């Protein structure tokens, strides 16, 4: 979704803004723009398409160095991705320039009122009403921050706004409701941005703005109030990762780098969760053990890849705790009037912590009396802040739009939560829990082993590069992995791909199978799993219909070899933990195929990294 940056300080502000926009490119966008104050007017440059187009425009029409700038990458919602609709927007009186992330739901009414008052509009965006309103407020004599608060009180929906006023070239004002905004506190300089990646090069001191807050900043001061003007507090924190984490470090794509970071990401997520006495501890779980013992239903809500992590979690949680566990797509959850009581535990999974559908789902669940546990990768983001407890994953910043290390660490955190609940509720013996924990702790080297043997997937991608449709089959925890494998392919290689429960195939989807449809099959561990032989039969069913079968099966599984056109070996792990190793070749295959097809793997078309609109 949109990326926002504002800078005030001694550096060449435009350079800071453009560099910040580049670091937020991963969020997804289709136009970009900047505004600065030069003398008595605002200079604006904005272009549809990539930031390179904006840079070309800046090269063709250069701007003298200034010490204040705002910059924006836009992901179009209201109004197409054109130069006119790109942000910033300047008020008709030329007083203010403004950028926005989110959706102003009542913009049509406000626009009608402004047009009736004779205000001319330049764009088709919802954002421009905020720029016009702000311009009129300051023109009428209001202080810039007061004017921002007045405008915010008029707006419905989700919005992060940042504005500058031509008469105050050392001051920026920003506001936040529902969409993310972080302040970067430097020495003699300050920043606001959607994401710390935008200013990590200059400072690691950040303040996360709360809901409905306005921040007023110059190069030396940061003042936060609520929308009524009362003093308010943000949440200061130090960013623990450095610039290298936000760079490709020699890889062609962030996604590829992130795939290869997975052993470390899982190890970091498991680190320190197990005491010397052999008990599991989850420090951030601030819900009483009594309450967790009384829980009679768990509902997991999440979107996309995080939803598939939730589906894997269901198998583990129900198996280990014997508590009924539902998994629901967040955007559907609150609209079906779910049955929630004070004994329902809602678990939400989100890499970004900002996904609007997920946020709205947990707000609904809280209103109905549920306690919320968030599994999240982004420190200080909105979803963990609005939850009763949080289990942070330690994947580090995930930049590639297609989630990889985010997903695998979500799996690890879900396993931890399941085991913790089993410990508290006494549904597993201590030594059983310790046994699973030992196996879990041993998975990072196994994931590394998969990474070390990916070469056949590279060749396979070359052979299958012309195919238009792929199927992925799995059973039990292999079923969500099949869907996640298909999602990766759809997202970045733009080919049709579907994941099915292998047993469901004969009830319809098998009609899709022919010689032109390669089929990936995830085989459960041999011997130790009762579904193994059934999946082998499923492989034969598709092979008999001419499909090229790509079989992912554990080392030593000799039964599968005769049925596989391509055989990829997985390290031996128990069934329930197998997703930690089986997803890796599927992620890599998608990355390889998309690269071969010439697509932008990190910024696939139409997608945004964190989806902050419903
Ligand atoms: C993953 O590859 C996707 N880009 C997408 O499905 C993502 O997982 C989903 O939008 C949820 O995001 P979140 O984890 O940040 O909430």
List the helices and strands and how they pair.
Blueprint: E1 3-8, H1 13-23, E2 31-38, E3 41-48, H2 51-60, E4 68-74, E5 89-90, E6 96-104, H3 107-116, H4 127-139, H5 144-154, E7 157-165, E8 172-177, E9 182-185, E10 190-193, E11 205-208, E12 213-217, E13 222-226, E14 235-238, H6 254-260, H7 262-270, H8 289-294, E15 297-302, H9 304-321, E16 325-329, H10 330-333, E17 344-350, H11 356-367, E18 371-376, H12 382-385, E19 389-392, H13 405-425, H14 430-441, H15 443-452, H16 455-464, E20 469-474, H17 478-493, E21 496-501, E22 519-522, H18 532-543, E23 549-554, E24 566-570, H19 579-596
Parallel strand pairs: 15-16, 15-17, 17-18, 18-19, 20-21, 20-22, 22-23, 23-24
Antiparallel strand pairs: 1-4, 1-10, 2-3, 2-4, 5-6, 6-7, 7-8, 8-12, 9-10, 9-11, 11-14, 12-13
This protein binds 2-deoxy-2-amino glucitol-6-phosphate.
Separation, N- and C-terminal Cα atoms: 12 Å
Total E-strand runs: 24
By secondary-structure content and strand pairing, the structural class works out as: alpha/beta
The residue-averaged pLDDT reads 93
Can you tell me the CATH architecture of the largest domain? 4-Layer Sandwich
Individual helix count: 19
* Assembly classification: single chain
Overall outline: globular
Q: How many structural units, i.e. domains?
A: 3
Question: What level of helicity do the residues show?
Answer: 25-40%
Small molecules bound: 2-deoxy-2-amino glucitol-6-phosphate
CATH topology of the largest domain: Glutamine Phosphoribosylpyrophosphate, subunit 1, domain 1
* The CATH homologous superfamily of the largest domain: Aminohydrolase, N-terminal nucleophile (Ntn) domain
Main beta-sheet strand count, sense and barrel state: 8 strands, antiparallel
User: Which parts are unreliable, with pLDDT below 50 for 5 consecutive residues or more?
Assistant: none
**Radius of gyration, Cα only, in angstroms?**
25 Å
Looking across the biggest beta sheet, what order are the strands in? 3-2-4-1-10-9-11-14
Beta fraction: 15-25%
